[in-house]
Design brief:
CATH architecture of the largest domain: 2-Layer Sandwich
Helix content: 40-55%
CATH topology of the largest domain: Beta-Lactamase
Number of strands: 18
Low-confidence stretches: none
Radius of gyration: 43 Å
Protein name: histidine kinase
Structural class: alpha+beta
InterPro entries: HATPase_C_sf, HATPase_dom, His_kinase_dom, HisK_dim/P_dom, HisK_dim/P_sf, Sig_transdc_His_kin-like_C
Organism: Marinoscillum furvescens DSM 4134
Number of helices: 11
Largest sheet: 6 strands, antiparallel
Shape: flat
Pfam families: HATPase_c, HisKA
CATH superfamily of the largest domain: PAS domain
Mean pLDDT: 82
Keywords: Coiled coil, Kinase, Membrane, Phosphoprotein, Transferase, Transmembrane, Transmembrane helix
């Protein structure tokens, strides 16, 4: 007796493999992955920590280098610079540095009396000139200041909370003129300026820093936490004390800069990604996978036959419904497309003639033209109005053409007459840009086509050429018949277009709309309609363009009554005169 079918035996073996894997091997894999995650996090933290220390040291060194230039200026000047001279020099040196208004510079004489004091925007901002440093510093610090005047080194002093509303770190250095000390400079920079570059590293968002001086006194970007008065209410949101963290949580690196000991610590922030949720997800995923496998196996065993029968019936019904829906969708898409195209073309093709009408009316109202010119413009108004009426009739024909109703009204006519009518309608628009038309059409050239549709094609191509021509440019229209085909070419010397625009020029569904050289607006529908009208005559439209060198459109129509091969099958040399 067989207790299991081949399919059931395979499911049982797979289930046993999952249980064995989860029991013996998965915990080992997860422990290994968690340990690797911890090592990776430690390496990343060390890298960020080193970059932070290096960034802080570079900021301090850059500030000291700037102060070195000030000392050279004061020492090497022929006479001792005045406060105004020194302030102007500092402002000139700071114009390319990122210290903004956070610098206060004081000059103190050998008796510790303030002689100069200024910021970038104020003179004596703390009312210190004439007062003594002894009034604000204790004896130990006075002794350090005396030592400053005995060497050529830079000395950083303990940061202080300034009344100006910032945490200032003084950099002091001796000023020696003619071999004798004349005092010292105390340059105070906002500590925020030195620390901010650390936070510009995008990787620090996952870490919290602790900054300290003399191994115990904390400071952040807004204040030094030494118990002294703070003259503003701002808080540094990244200060570890505000985040409920202890100093023992940090890994530290110490460095000494210009006589001041700094300690920079780093610790992962609360939002630091952890490997624990990932491992838990794996465990729960294994459990859910196991349960789902068992449930699915039972359901497949019980309902396999029934589901197959129901599924076969449902599939047949769905297939029938899908076929019917596809037919309805195709019909609906065609109707919606017709509606959208019709409304878009109405808005586009009526715009050109109406624009010409408004231009002519504006010229007539200005009373700056002669009676003869007025008569000519009134005739042009009449022609433009007739053109609009013709366009509306043409749109109806285009709509009927797209609904598979034969609406072409072909007739024999002189092509030059149609070109002259279109040229006259476009003259006002061309005149505004100083664009000239050059027409080379044989007087006896006969064409059999829909007069209105072909007129729309000519107007659109010539209007497009004017739109992208430069001021004072030229648009050339030539036409000829060769063999079994009629050819019409419209050329301009305008801006041309890149190949990617040419490839989607006649596709209404792609963005090929560009503004003209005088920022003339358009919708891209004119060329689309022209292409459809030409194709309705079993013709083709070709475009050649080089960016910066103009564009050429070639319309090719078969001569009715003659045996014609497709123009696309002809050699290129037969498509031109």
């Amino acid at each position: 007796m067989k207790f299991f079918s081949p399919g059931q035996r395979l499911q049982t073996i797979f289930l046993a493999a999952i249980i064995l894997f989860g029991t013996f091997y998965l915990p080992f894999v997860l422990d290994y992955m968690e340990e690797a995650q911890r090592e990776k996090a430690a390496i990343a933290q060390t890298k960020v920590h080193q970059e932070a220390v290096r960034s802080f040291q570079n900021s301090v060194d850059q500030f000291a280098m700037f102060m070195s230039g000030i000392r050279s200026y004061m020492v090497n000047s022929e006479t001792m610079p005045s406060q105004d001279d020194l302030q102007s020099f500092v402002e000139y040196q700071l114009k390319d540095l990122n210290y903004s208004d956070s610098l206060i510079l004081t000059y103190v004489d050998t008796a510790h009396i303030f002689r100069y004091s200024f910021s970038r925007t104020q003179t004596d901002p703390g009312n210190l000139i004439g007062t003594s440093v002894r009034d604000i510093r204790d004896q130990d610090e006075i002794a350090r200041l005396d030592a400053v005047m005995q060497d050529e080194e830079f000395h950083l002093f303990t940061p202080i909370n300034l009344v100006e509303g910032m945490i200032g770190v003084p950099l002091n250095f001796n000023i020696v003129r003619h071999g004798q000390s004349v005092g010292y400079i105390a340059a105070i920079v906002d500590f925020k300026t030195l620390i901010n570059p650390i936070y510009e590293n995008p990787l620090v968002k996952n870490y919290v820093f602790r900054f300290a001086v003399n191994d115990s006194t904390d400071f952040d970007r807004e204040q030094i936490h030494d118990g002294s008065r703070v003259f503003h209410s701002r808080k540094d949101s990244q200060y570890y004390g505000h985040l409920g963290m202890a100093s023992s949580e940090f890994a530290y690196e110490e460095l000494t800069l210009y006589g001041m000991n700094f300690k920079i610590g780093i610790a992962p922030s609360a939002n630091m990604p952890s490997g624990i949720p990932y491992i838990s997800w794996l465990l729960y995923g294994w459990y859910v996978l196991l349960v789902l496998f068992v449930v699915v196996s039972i359901l497949r065993l019980v309902k396999f036959v029934k589901l197959n029968s129901v599924l076969a019936t449902t599939n047949r019904q769905v297939a029938n419904q899908k076929e019917e829906l596809e037919k309805q969708n195709k019909q609906l898409e065609k109707l919606v497309g017709m509606k959208d195209k019709l409304f878009s073309i109405i808005g586009h093709d009526l715009r050109g003639p109406l624009s010409s009408i408004l231009t002519i009316m504006s010229l007539v109202e200005s009373n700056k033209i002669s009676q003869e010119e007025t008569r000519q413009f009134l005739k042009a108004l009449n022609d433009a109005a007739r053109s609009n009426l013709s366009l509306l009739d043409n749109l109806l024909k285009w709509s009927m053409m797209n609904t598979e109703v034969d609406s072409l009204n072909k007739s024999d006519f002189e092509f030059s007459r149609l070109v002259n009518e279109c040229q006259l309608l476009l003259l006002p628009t061309a005149a505004k840009k100083g664009v000239k038309f050059e027409v080379d059409v044989p007087e006896d050239l006969q064409v059999q086509a829909d007069y209105d549709m072909l007129g729309t094609v000519i107007r659109n191509l010539m209007s497009n050429a004017v739109k992208f021509s430069h001021e004072g440019g030229e648009v050339k229209l030539t036409a000829w018949q060769k063999g079994t085909h009629f050819y019409m070419k419209v050329e301009d010397e305008g801006v041309g277009m890149p190949e990617d625009v040419q490839n989607k020029l006649f596709d209404l569904g792609k963005d090929s709309v560009r503004n003209g050289t005088n920022n003339e607006k358009g919708t891209g529908l004119g060329l689309y309609v022209s292409n459809e009208f030409v194709e309705a005559h079993n013709g083709n439209v070709f475009v050649e363009s080089e960016q910066g060198a103009g564009t050429s459109f070639l319309v090719v129509l078969p001569v009715p009554g003659a045996f014609t091969e497709s123009v696309l099958d002809q050699p290129m040399e037969l498509r031109v005169a």
